[in-house]
Every structure is written in structure tokens, then in C-alpha cells.
Amino acid sequence: MRWAYAALVTLGGFLLTRGVLRVVSTRLRKLAERTGSAALTIMASVLKLTSATLLFLLFVLIGLHVLQPSPQVARWLDSLMFLVVGLQVGLWASHAISAWTASSLRRTGTGAGNPVVMTMLSWFARTMVWALLLLAVLDNVGVNVTAFVASLGIGGIAVALGLQNVLKDLFASLAIGLDKPFEIGEFIQFGDFLGTIAHVGIKTTRIRSLSGEEISISNSMLLDQTIRNYSRMQTRRIVFGFGLPIDTPRGKVEQVVEAVRDIVGAVENTRLDRAHFQRFGPSSLDFEVVHIVQSPDYNVYMDIQQGINLALMQRLEALELTFAVPVRTLRADGAVYVPAAEGGTSPAG
Fold first, then answer.
1. How far, in whole angstroms, is CA 140 from its chain's centroid?
2. Architecture of domain 172-231
3. What's phi and psi for 62, nearest 5 deg?
4. What would the pLDDT profile of 139-160 be if each residue is shown by its tens digit?
5. Which residues contact 34 (CB under 8 A, 6 or more apart)?
6. In this predicted model, what pLDDT tens digit does every residue of 4-31 receive, in sequence order?
7. CA angle 41-46-52, nearest 5°?
8. Which residues pair with 338 in a beta bridge?
9. How far apart are CA 140 and CA 247, in angstroms?
10. Would strands 204-209 and 214-218 be described as parallel, antiparallel, or unpaired?
């Protein structure tokens, strides 16, 4: 009779509890769809993933209790029940943390979670959950948890010393997530490398270079360098120069300055800052022009600069002027030699 009662408690309790969990999960999911609550969605998914095996095992142990076993067997049954419940709670908590992380990463705008920070927090929270459950189970079966934790602390120091480079990268990853010097998809330069951020991990950051290959660099080494984030540019300040022959008349120099101002001022998506006859060079009259491109896009800048260069060439042709070329005057044995072209020399009187 006791065996029949134990079987009834086992099967009845399992089916009833599973049915209640399923109904509650369905109600929570429908309520979450109506209200748009992320918390209710997470609760519904957590309950839906209740392990049927652990639930059945729990009621098997409850059913065995009905048989009124000896005190020693009862203690073992209690320990097993604590273990089963702990495993189920750990699964619920782990899934809740993962679902919360995924929900935070799906959000956009000011409420969006940083991938690096969220991943690290999720990993740390799940580790803490399972560590606490392990200590609780060990304490339940009679293990001296205080001595166990102390030994883990000593071992942890030794492990930390051996993994200091890994930990350095780990904290650098956290710094990247909190300070956000760059994010996935942004174009940066560090050292001689340029590329787009493809992935920010716990130890390394992967960058897709302009030539197509993937560059992996440790987070700590990356943060030790000066990083230029071109994706966060609002405008581009462009400085370029050119020269005219040293014997260009003053009147034409003034015309060139006005021509450059007219050319740059007429171009869309850029704003003239200044254009000046800058200095007397060794063999040329040097000009400097500064304009502000109203777009961070590199291709837009190149199109604008190309248009300015072509228009400047056309205007100089109209003024019967040419760009200056480097000229050197050499004296040898009393004669003066002036290069007639880039490749040779011609005697001068």
C-alpha cells in the first residue's frame, strides 16, 4: 500500500507541477506580449525550460520519503533533493541571466547594452550562481566550506599570478566596454594599421584591415597605443598646398589667391577656411589652402579634393601659369649649372 501511495505521490506531483508550470509560463508569455514587458518574457522562458528530468527525479525522492526510510537513508534522500533543487535553480538563474543579456543587447538607443560589458557581467553572474550553489551543496553534505574556501583563496592567488597577462587583457576588455573608445563597425587607426572593428572579445580585439585580412591584437596592447577613431568624425579639416614658379609676377599671385578662394567656395559639402600666399620657398612661391569637408566619408573628401585640383589646374592654364618644379643651382669650377629638366643639367652664364 505504501508503494502505491509513493507511486501516486510521484506521478501525481510530477504531472500536476509540470501542468501548473506550463500554464503559468503560457499566461506570462501572453501577458508579456500585451504589455511588452521584458521581465515577464524572461520569466516565461525560464519556467518553460524547467527540466522534466530533474522535476521527475525530485518527486521520485519525495515518493521515497513517503516509504518512511531509516534516518540515514532519509538524510541521503534530503541531500539528493537539495542537489536536484539546486541544479534546477541554477538552470533557471543561468537562463534568466542569458535572456537578460540577450534582451539588453537587442535594445537600441540610449538603453542599449555594451556587448563587452554585458558579456562579462553575464559570465561573472553565472559563475557566481554556480559557485554559490556548489558551496551550498557541499555544506549540505557536511563538507567544511570555510576550509574549502580558504584553500581556494590561496590557490586563486597562485592562479592569478600565473594568468596575469590574461587578467590584464580581461580588465582591458572591461575598460573598452566602459570607456568605449571604439565600437563594432567603427573604422580606427592604431600604429600603422587601419581597419574596421569586427569583434571585441575578452582577450583580443579583431580588426578587418583595408586589404581584407583580419588583425588580432590583445586588448591591453591595443589600449596602450594612440587610437584614432575616424567613424566619429563630424567633419574633415583638409590642408593642401601648391607652388608657383619663383618669378611669377605679384599681380598674378594675387589673382591665384582669389581664384583658389572662388574655386573652393563654390564647391558643395565643403567650407573654405583660408587660402594664402604662405611663403617664399627655395625655388617657388608657396600657397596653403585650408577647407572643411562637411562629411566624415573619405570618398566624399577625395571627390571634393579632386574637383578642386582639376579646377585649379584649369584656372592656372587660363592665367598662363604652371606649377613650380624643384630647381637647384650648382656651382662647379666657376660655372653655374641649372637643371633644364628633371633628368639633366644645362650650362648657364
1. 43
2. Roll (2.30)
3. -65, -40
4. 777 777 676 666 666 666 655 5
5. none
6. 777 887 888 888 888 888 888 888 888 8
7. 140
8. 346
9. 97
10. antiparallel
CA distance linking residue 202 with residue 167, whole number of Å: 9
Domain parsing of the chain, residue ranges: 2-141, 172-231, 236-318
pLDDT tens sequence across 38-91:
788 888 888 888 888 888 888 888 888 777 777 888 788 888 888 888 888 888
CA distance 241 to 290: 9
Cβ 44 vs Cβ 32: under 8 Å: yes
d(C-alpha 229, C-alpha 250), whole Å: 43
Nearest to 288 by CA among 275, 301, 273: 275
- Residues 79-121 have pLDDT tens digits of 888 888 888 888 888 888 888 888 777 765 544 556 666 777 7
Write the CATH number of the domain with boundaries 236-318. 3.30.70.100
Q: Give the percent of the chain with pLDDT over 70.
A: 84
